[in-house]
Amino acid sequence: MHIDKHILDKVNEWLTPTFDKKTQDIIEEMMTSSPKELEDSFYKNLEFGTGGMRGVMGVGTNRINKYTLGKNTQGLSNYMKKVFAGEELKVAIAYDCRHNSDTLAKVVADVFSANGIKVFLFSEMRPTPELSFTVRHLDCHAGIVLTASHNPPEYNGYKVYWQDGGQLVPPQDGEIIQVIESLQYSDINFDANESLIQYIDKDLDEAFWKSTVENASFNTPQNAKDNLKIVYTSLHGTSIKAIPSVLALAGYNDVNIVKEQAEPDGNFPTVKSPNPEEPEALTMAIELANKINADIVVGTDPDSDRLGVAVRDLDGKMKLLNGNQTMVIMTAFLLEQWKRAGKITGKEFIGSTIVSTPMMLDLAEAYKVECKVGLTGFKWIAKFIKDFPELQFIGGGEESFGYMVGDNVRDKDAVAAILLVCEIAALAKASGSSLFQELINLSVDFGFYKEHLISITKKGIEGANEIKQMMIDLRENPLKEIANQRVVCIEDYQTSKGKDLMNGDEFEISIPKSNVLIYYLEDGSKICARPSGTEPKIKFYISVNQPLDSKEDYLKVEKQLDSKIDAIISEMNLN
């Protein structure tokens, strides 16, 4: 197999004494036995996407290893010294249950300390939201979490948080990437100063739990809490370190843990994917719920920023809610609580994203607060909090099963979101309703919105090219009609331009540039195409809606909306 010269040049660099013997031996073995894998390991440098840097673990520039993460950390150290000149620099580091996460976290800590930066390193795995909380709690300049979120077991990743506890956003991200790219691997200082590394655990845990309970509980009567039967699974991840303690602290005593999934394990042995977006991931939890007649199932991904929720439907069967549904239930509840407490003054906002349900805009209008809509990723919601200090943040989310309650944690936070959703479920049950009934009530009040996500995986170099071509086709040959509905507007976030196809008017889009394309249809449907920033996938987000006149019509209207979604999928060849 012929390998391009630019790839071979990179390979040869990794065969120099800058890299350890083990790394060199693996590369030499790949050169003879796995040239295709060698090419994939070196054909590009791993990039920062919507959730930091994620990739397969292994040797090479396109892999997660001590050198690619060491280079990131050296670049970040150099940048921080320049930006915060003269300050005593501090960073916090956490990691999840993945293979090598603890080792890689120590490598990152070593590099920071070698550069004279004080490091607070968690002594064992912890949820990502706890790291975001810790950055602000310990007044750090930055934070790192080693996680690949819900990706498959062979992945790991590196997420960077800034002083505000939110992930890196422009302009810092671009500036830091420039510094990293200007470095040679030989510039990395791995020589740790152990006196600058302080291990943290119990004190931070207790502060995080206490803050979560203060932020996400609402004077729910104890008998309502006692009457809610909860099934919880950590899907072999880190949330086991926080959620049982937080629920107990908040007064929830009937919490039934899925024992087979309670042990942290980077192989995620009982699931195909440790992602609560996938219905299969909560199968064991739902089986337990049916066995003990539980009211609600809650589960998290490995780093505990995403949550999955299943509740009893109108027939009493367990039904998995999607991220848009949990988001509107939680947001509507928070808005109502704020309204009752007399805290809505017109200086508040909720947050959402361009691929999430439009119902969030309707909720904001009804409660007379602002809805700020950003690109996919919670770093943009955190940026709104930083950019608009005169406004108070109530809560916000995105369709990918993430939610943020208040601003104590500046990233999606399954710990607070699970406590909040249990509060809503307990209060609903106590008043003779249910979480599912509350969702139907919202559909009557604001219109029945139904969303569906299609994810198409395309791996490797060829896959990346196929995804690129799909986006080019959608841009250069835009669809004029989809499922018998005219396309009335197209927004292209890459060019920052939108076009009203009914009158030909063009308009500017003020949201930062991103490779996203949105089609709006004349019946209010919305289709968004977006390549994933962290996985080899292209995603199509479909949203349809129509009025719901009464609760009794729920199932009939749901069928009509499902037919609309099926027609769009069929016409766009997405099945």
TrEMBL record:
SUPFAM superfamilies linked: Phosphoglucomutase, C-terminal domain, Phosphoglucomutase, first 3 domains
Record flagged with keyword Isomerase: yes
Domain Alpha-D-phosphohexomutase alpha/beta/alpha, chain residue ranges per copy: 47-183, 215-310, 322-440
Cofactor(s) needed by this chain: Mg(2+)
CDD domains: PGM2 (cd05799)
Keyword RNA-binding: no
Keywords from the named record: Isomerase, Magnesium, Metal-binding, Phosphoprotein
Matches recorded under Gene3D superfamilies: Alpha-D-Glucose-1,6-Bisphosphate, subunit A, domain 3, Alpha-D-phosphohexomutase, C-terminal domain
Pfam families attached to this UniProt entry: PGM_PMM_I, PGM_PMM_II, PGM_PMM_III
Highest taxon in the source lineage: Bacteria
Entry similarity comment: Belongs to the phosphohexose mutase family.
Name of protein: Phosphoglucomutase
Taxonomic placement: Bacteria, Pseudomonadati, Bacteroidota, Flavobacteriia, Flavobacteriales
